[in-house]
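Lay summary

Proteins are chains of building blocks that fold into shapes. Our project writes down both the chain and a compact code for its shape. Here are two examples, one after the other.
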Amino acid sequence: MAGGPLLLTLSITALAWGVQGKKQISGSTTVYLGQHRDVWRPMIHIAVNLTKIRDIKSSFQLRTYDPEGTIFYGDTKNGRDWFILSLKDGIPLMQISRSGVLVNVAGGPKLNDGRWHTLELSNRGHFVILEVDGSRGLVVGLRSDTIEEVLSGSLRLALGGILIPRERLFVQLEPQMDACVREGSWLNLSIPWETDADELRPCYQNIRPGSFFAGNGLAIVNASVLQTEHERGVTIELWGDFAKMDGTILSIRTPGQALTFALVTDNNTKQEVTLSFGRHKLSLKDNFKRLEMTFGTDSLEVRHGGHESKVPWDFLSPLKKSGLLSTLRESHVAIGGLLGEDDVGSRFLRGCLEKVQIQGKDVDLDQAAKHWSISSHSCPV
């Protein structure tokens, strides 16, 4: 289990209470974008008079394994003209609305490799330019007889969210992002940004791909992942060091019924992984890093660490009577806790799941109903 990792903590001197009760933060501070809030609401934001801006250029560093999410937003005229920088499939995506003209362009290198990348955004005449690590990544040209070239009034900037209705976006996307931003230089402004968060969640100093569960909550996956053809089985695969996890890894439950399945690891006392179906249990030693379960109409196959475990008759017998596949199609899946249990009974998972697949497809926890403490795409090292 990842324990005691060094954190890029927020500087105490960088935080102070604003005159209107909002917390203020330096624009150069290291900020985790996946904070607990409405997924569209910005993490930090600022508003300045355009007459104070001398250089239409901003730069910052970004680090993520997440392929999709909102990074940076800016607007004028109270949101009538706006700009959004995000990732889609790991590639930079810019969306611009100006005087009713909508422009969308994607390109450049994939940035969701877990490394720090330096991004620079600048406005040069009719062009918006994105440079990545010193090389030109995207160039967007905007010229129209209807576009007003003289800018006045207020400019709003935001990180990790947007300040307009999401329906106005040219390209829809999943907004929440498991990512960190640091060393921001925003239009050469030195005034502090504002945040509504009571406490900012820090960034881990070193990360690796996976989903990290801190032992505080679970993620409920859309039930559609279990939909199958009539006779086709359901296969669930999990990757990770099971000897370094503790708590409930997976649970399946049909609404209104008792718990169907639970997969629990005990690394503190027994060093084993237990698969439960009702009162019946199958125990495995936890010295493996991949587990595959295939549920058939009246069967269960369990493979782990390159071996197949024989499922005892008393475990299979109730499966044959339960109409298992029909039950699964109506069930919900939770990762990291027991469905329908309280905080104590659920024994929430602590540890890193490197990957979860259902029916051969990766499960993206950004699309699940999850506890705010779960990092969807990164684990601390």
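And here is the second example, written the same way.
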Amino acid sequence: MDSMTLPDTYVAGFHDEAAVRKMRYNVLGNTGLRVSHLAFGAGPLGGRSTYGEYDEAEAIAAVHEALKQGINYIDTAPWYGQGRSEELLGKALKDVPRNAYYIATKVARYEVDPRKMFDFSRGKTLESVDHSLKLLGLDYVDIIQVHDIEFAPDVDIVVDETLPALQSVVAAGKARYIGVTGYPVSVLKKAIERSNTKVDTVLSYTRDTLIDDTLKKYLPFFQSKGLGIIHAAGVSMGLLSNGGPMPWHPAPDNLKKVCAAAGQYCKERGVELARLALHYTMGQPGIATHLVGMNSREILNSNLDILNNGLSDLEKTVLQEINTQFFDKIKPAHWEDIEINNLKEKLKALNE
């Protein structure tokens, strides 16, 4: 796709035209939407225990600046701060032309209480979409996604109840396209294979990174179905950063230790591991857009710098070194089933 061609989301007088022309855009599967290679992940706008607190005015400024710089895809969910992310986006987007961006939200994952965390029923799904639209201050979202489908009691519930409910949401004009998200890529494939409802996008997170390239095995299947492929969390939810992940991160201790050692190595060389990880994942083929969590202009500008300017010679050298010394020995490394088993244990304890 010619990067000099302005995307449909370009609005004269709002965007920085030079920045938009510089931005890389890719077609999102059969949706035909041209989305920015770097996307705005609004998970950190949920704040609190998940991603830490942030300055609200600064976060709103980051949303505005991201859009003006040519980022045209935003992803959020009710789960992020139990509505806080959507609510803050609503505040930020009220001053932005609606045709200047594409936005996706989700259904099915909601509360911190393990007993109320997931609900894949038709009634809750329809109710959730209306609530999200109210918080966002919008008449419709571009993509409505089923969040973390691996937590459904059975994938058939997603196929037989949640996805048909979303089909009615699209029919009502409240969304344009339907997607599924999840951690085990095999479960995403299974749902798409079984679904009679047309699925347009698939969101996989932390599965095409310095430590895990599992997504690559499934790309031909997703591409054969005309799906728009979205990848999130190229820094493995903080695992691939000098500072390390939040305490809740589900990775096993041995994996955390390897990543912490790599982070320490980067720190000693004066390099930030997260920049190396993000550069790597944004360079992988077959992915339309990369969701990166942001809640400040400082983070935004660093991400834009990686996209536009790449790595320094020192960073390139260190990236090669950490792959050889740390990551090549453990790849692919993942934490499938750990979160599901932890949730089952919590529910069992609550029910005893």
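What can we say about the second shape? The first strand starts at residue 25 and ends at 27.
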